[in-house]
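Q: I'm building a small set of examples for a reading group on sequence design. Run inverse folding on the following structure and report the sequence directly after it, with nothing in between.
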């Protein structure tokens, strides 16, 4: 673990490539109970967000009926489907989570 953190800190390892699902705190109980049956990599949970656990690759489809997912799909498309800082800032801003700077 120490080696992974050190590699990440120096930019030699990019942990965002491992993230496949995004969700809010309300998604935790179901996610924990069903974790062995949920395919993919890391599940990233935001404690200030109310959102079901959602596969990043499903954002575009969900975006057809939900403006939040439409914007998230557009933001992750810029990084070839990888969760990124801009998507995170946008998501947090939509739920009023202050991170010390304005979403861009």
């Amino acid at each position: 673990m120490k080696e992974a953190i050190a590699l990440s800190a120096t930019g030699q390892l990019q942990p965002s490539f491992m993230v496949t699902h995004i969700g809010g705190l309300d998604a935790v109980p179901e996610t924990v109970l069903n974790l062995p049956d949920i395919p993919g990599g890391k599940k990233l949970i935001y404690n200030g967000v109310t959102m079901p656990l959602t596969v990043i690759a499903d954002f575009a489809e969900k975006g057809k009926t939900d403006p939040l997912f439409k914007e998230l799909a557009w933001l992750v498309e810029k990084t070839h489907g990888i969760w990124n800082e801009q998507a995170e800032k946008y998501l947090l801003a939509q739920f009023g989570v202050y991170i010390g700077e304005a979403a861009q």
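The first strand starts at residue 19 and ends at 24.
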